[in-house]
Design goal:
It is a single chain. The protein has 24 helices and 19 strands. By secondary structure, it is an alpha/beta fold. A 7-stranded mixed sheet has the order 9-8-10-11-13-12-17, with helices on both faces. Strands 1-2-3-5-4 form a 5-stranded parallel sheet, sandwiched between helices. The chain has a 5-stranded mixed sheet with strand order 14-16-15-18-19, sandwiched between helices.
């Protein structure tokens, strides 16, 4: 059903709708979300929770001129539906389709490609100050929507502190749904619960509403009187509140699913000078009972079918992922050694750590979306003698780069980094691809960097890492785990695994493309080539002895990595060859080129980049033919010279 939704070409079309029609539109938007997730994995519960807020914002402000940033933009879907993208909505998170996050290339209503939490207020304050300088004070409104899960991020408080000092007109909407991806943690979560649930405040507020409802005034005067009375009441109950102390005017809590109330509050705070925080309470998964009952599972559920009784039938994949293998290895390590801890930054579900959390509650630490703190926290544990594992997505570890350097690597502390989602993450796209970890980690002294070739390597690498006295990083992709048949070689520091030597060509694989490389090697051998295959295992320290033997003894060497080519594994091999004085003109690198990779299924992206078995085979065949032609040309030239 899209009676109204199909007519919305831009937010201007919302202005003509009555309140009843807006509520009908909200229902149609939720239906569009349910239809989408019936076909593909997509962010779901978070988007269900902001439908009314989205409509209230777009009917109060004109974001063709005003500024709007959605923090941690996975809740952007309702915004996309009303900003001219409904007819392409079915393409979201597919190759060539709409992105699952804000994308300025799609629409002028998307200002930043926001895929990491906490940066919205800083960016918005920058926009606010620039607009004031360029267009005059207060010519454009500026709004950021940030979730309570993102609120504890350090950059948020840096921005709030700056906003309070600058006293610029700014609206921060705190979307409080009691969740990050998993239930939120920490002191701020408790503080927001007290704001929302204080029984004295709630009871008095209801009495004020009853009293004011009897005042014989109509329209805005009543609302403004209620607004002012609430603020006086709140001040008496809470005194100097956290946000007020930072220099922001605090208003709320407000029902985030009541469009009329949201619009009234937004209109009121729109006129307030200086920075304002509007506390909006929403329900993650609102309007779809299974998602509201289990918002953790329905954050990004697998495709499902809706049943007549209101339940859902989820289409689960039976394949085990590298994430599952990593979490099982972490579980076994913690079971064997009570000194092993695991630290996650609000990604318990994403890293499949629920069993670890429930079995070892004293060894499990969720810091919230605070990656820099998580790494420094791990450094403290390591200094005291524990063996902390920071289980984190590759793209999110970038947010803690200074702490990796100073608190961990500089101190030489044995922190283990388990980098989930390394390489291409598929439909999540460029904000989430873990392309850069090899380049940004291998530059640090004291750091060991490993990449398992297959599922068998991963548990062995974690066990090995926990025996080291220096920091260790292990990267692995968001993918179904694969096994390469071989006699598994034991792990030795800085030692590659040679599966076979080859004279015509040697494939040197860094990471889980080993299975694809094995298939490509088999194809080449079937064509009569003598092909070698090496599982690099270590990016740092590099096995220079083994790899340079391959460079020296093969006509063609191809390195393979699911990582940025600039500064990656192939670069490390070329550096080693240069240091050894070897000619590396016959070394070819396969990996991710110097550009951001768009979203699509991981298999599609790998094929586009020539990193699947067919692409590797095609590249190798071309290089071998080119080498054969050069050799034939050299023989002809030599023969002519001799004659």
């Amino acid at each position: 059903m899209d009676t109204l939704l199909s007519r919305i070409e831009s937010p201007r079309d919302l202005q003509a709708l009555s309140l009843a029609e807006l509520e009908q539109l909200a229902a149609e938007m939720r239906e569009a979300l349910c239809n989408l997730v019936a076909h593909r994995t997509a962010h779901f519960a978070s988007n269900l929770g902001v439908v009314e807020l989205c409509l209230a914002l777009h009917t109060t402000f004109d974001f063709s001129q005003d500024r709007l940033i959605w923090d941690t933009g996975h809740q952007i879907y309702p915004h996309k539906l009303v900003t001219g993208r409904y007819r392409r909505f079915h393409t979201i998170r597919t190759r060539g389709g709409l992105m699952g996050y804000p994308n300025p290339q799609e629409s002028p209503y998307d200002l930043f490609m926001t895929g990491h939490a906490g940066c919205s207020i800083s960016c918005l304050l920058g926009l606010r100050t620039a607009d004031d300088l360029l267009y005059g004070e207060g010519q454009r409104h500026a709004v950021a929507v940030i979730g309570d899960g993102a609120l504890p991020s350090g950059i948020v408080f840096e921005a709030l502190n700056n906003a309070g000092g600058l006293k610029k007109k700014l609206l921060v909407i705190l979307n409080d749904n009691k969740m990050s991806i998993c239930p939120r943690v920490g002191g701020l979560a408790d503080y927001l619960d007290r704001l929302r649930l204080n029984p004295l405040y709630t009871g008095l507020k209801q009495e004020v509403v009853k009293a004011l409802s009897k005042v014989p005034l109509l329209g805005d005067p009543v609302e403004k009187l209620l607004f002012q009375a609430k603020e006086l009441l709140k001040a008496g109950l809470h005194g100097g509140m956290l946000f007020e102390e930072l220099g922001l005017r605090y208003y709320g809590p407000v029902d985030g699913h009541n469009i009329a109330q949201l619009r009234r509050y937004l209109q009121l705070v729109k006129e307030v000078d200086g920075p304002v925080l509007l506390h909006v309470v929403t329900e993650k998964g609102h309007g779809f009972q299974p998602a509201a009952a289990d918002p953790v599972f329905f954050h990004t559920p697998a495709p499902f079918e809706r049943c007549a009784n209101g339940s859902v039938q989820v289409k689960k994949s039976p394949a085990r992922s590298y994430t599952h293998i990593a979490s099982e290895a972490i579980y076994q390590a913690m079971q064997a050694n009570p000194g092993v801890t695991v630290i996650t930054a609000a990604m318990c579900q994403g890293n499949n750590l629920e069993r670890v959390r429930d079995t070892f509650p004293k060894q499990f630490f969720d810091t919230g979306i605070c990656e820099a703190h998580a790494v420094a926290f791990a450094a403290g544990q390591a200094k005291a003698g524990l063996r902390p594992i920071v289980d984190i997505y590759s793209t999110f570890l970038q947010r803690a780069y200074d702490q990796i350097f100073q608190e961990v690597a500089l101190q030489g502390l044995p922190v283990v980094f388990m980098l989930d989602r390394a390489g291409l993450t598929g439909p999540d796209g460029p904000t989430h691809h873990g392309m850069f970890d090899l380049a940004y980690l291998r530059v640090f002294p004291n750091m060991v960097v490993m990449a398992p070739g297959d599922a068998a390597d991963l548990p062995a690498m974690l066990a090995f890492a926990l025996q080291q006295q220096v920091p260790v990083a292990i990267r692995y992709p968001k993918a179904a785990a694969e096994h390469v048949k071989r006699q598994l070689a034991p792990l030795e520091l800085g030692r590659a695994e040679v599966l076979e030597w080859g004279h015509d060509l040697t494939l040197v694989c860094c990471g889980t493309q080993l299975h694809a490389a094995t298939q490509a090697a088999a194809g080449l051998r079937g064509e009569g080539y003598d092909v070698g295959l090496i599982n690099a295992r270590f990016v740092k320290p590099l096995d220079a002895e083994t790899l340079l033997r391959a460079v020296d003894g093969s006509r063609v060497v191809v390195t393979i990595e699911e990582a940025a080519l600039h500064g990656g594994f192939g670069s490390a091999l070329l550096e080693a060859a240069a240091d050894a004085g070897l000619d590396a003109g016959h070394v070819h690198r396969l990996g991710i080129p110097d550009r951001f990779i768009e979203h699509g299924e991981r298999a599609e992206l790998l094929a586009d980049l020539g990193l699947d078995a067919a692409g590797i085979l095609r590249t190798c065949r071309t290089l071998l033919q080119r080498t054969r032609l050069r050799a034939a040309g050299t023989r002809r030239a030599t023969g002519s010279a001799t004659a």
